[in-house]
Amino acid sequence: MIEFRAFSKRFGRVQAVTDLTWEAGRGEVVALLGPNGSGKTTSIKAAAGLVRPTTGEVLVGEPRRPAMLPAARESCSFLPQRVRFAEALTGIEVVQFYCRLRSREATGVKAALALTGLNGASARTVGTYSGGMMQRLGLAVAMSLDTPLLLLDEPTAALDPEGLGAFHELIDRRRADGRTVIFSSHQLADVERLADRVIVLVGGRLVASLSASDLALRLADRGVMKILVESPAPGLLDAVRGVAPEATLVGNELVVPAPAAVRLRVIDLVRASGAVIARLSTEEGRLDLLYRDLVGGRS
Fold it and tell me: Tell me: the pLDDT tens digits for 91-146?
C-alpha cells in the first residue's frame, strides 16, 4: 500500500530526511515517532504527494505508483498537523465541499461526523468551533473520502478525552476494513494502543522499525519485578545478582530489573534459598523510557 525506497529530502541546506526505507501493507496501522525536526511531517507529506523526493522514491496504492502522480494521490486522504476551514461554513458543508472537490459521493458524510463526535455540532458554523472540534472536523473530512490510505500528521494533538476515544474507534474501524493508516504522534499511549508498527526517526534517519510484537518484547525485556520476602537468607542478593546484575535489596524487598525469562529464574532462586515470598509484583518496561533511549535524549 505504501513504500519508502531510500527516500531523501533536502530543503536548501537542511537535510530533512536521509535514505528512509520502510513499507506498510493493507490494513496496517503505522505510527511515526521522533523528536521535533526528525522528518515525520516531511515523510507524511511525501506520501501524500506534496513533497517531491530529492533522491529515492515513495510509492503508494495498489498497484504502487510514485506518490506525486494524480492516480496515486487518489488513493489517500491527508490530514495536516494544523487545519483551517472557512469559518462561515457549517461542519457538514465543509465535509460536503471536500467530497465534491475530490469527486467523491457524499453518502458517508453523516457517518463520518457521527464517528468523530461532531454530529451534534455539524449545523454550527466553523467559526464557533474550538481547536479540538476543528481537529475532529479534519478527521471527519479525511474519513468521509473513504480512501484506502489515511495519512494523519499529529491527529490527536488538540483532542479531548472524548475526541481521543472517537479517534481510537476510527482507527480500529479502518484496520478492520483493511485500510492502511499512517500517523505521527508524540502521544505514546496512542502509539502503544493503536500501532501495528512503530517507525522511529531521529535527525531524518530511521533508527528503529518495531512491529507490535517486537515492541512488546522490548518492553518485557525492560520490566521490573519486586519480591517481598520474609527473612531473606544471607547471600540471597549475591545469588540473584549472578543472573540479574542490577538487582537490589531494599529492606526485605528485592527489586529486579531484568527480562521476563531472567525474572523467572530469580523466583526459582528465592524459593531455593528457603525464603517465603510474601508479595510479588511485576511491571513491564515503559514506552517513554524506551523511546528516550532510541532517540538518544533528543526532544
Answer: 889 888 888 888 776 666 777 787 777 777 888 898 998 888 888 888 888 888 87
Q: Spell out the residues 6+ positions from residue 271 whose beta carbon is closer than 8 angstroms to its own.
A: 277
Is-contact 146 95, C-beta < 8 A?
no
- What pLDDT is attached to residue 31? 93
Domains of the chain: total: 3
Residues 38 and 186 in one domain: yes
Task: Note the pLDDT of residue 259.
Answer: 85
* Pair (200, 249) in one structural domain: no
Indicate the residue type of 154.
E
**d(Cα 89, Cα 250) in Å, to the nearest integer?**
63
Domain hosting 245: range is 223-283
Cβ burial of 255 (10 Å; 0-12, 13-18, 19+) is middle
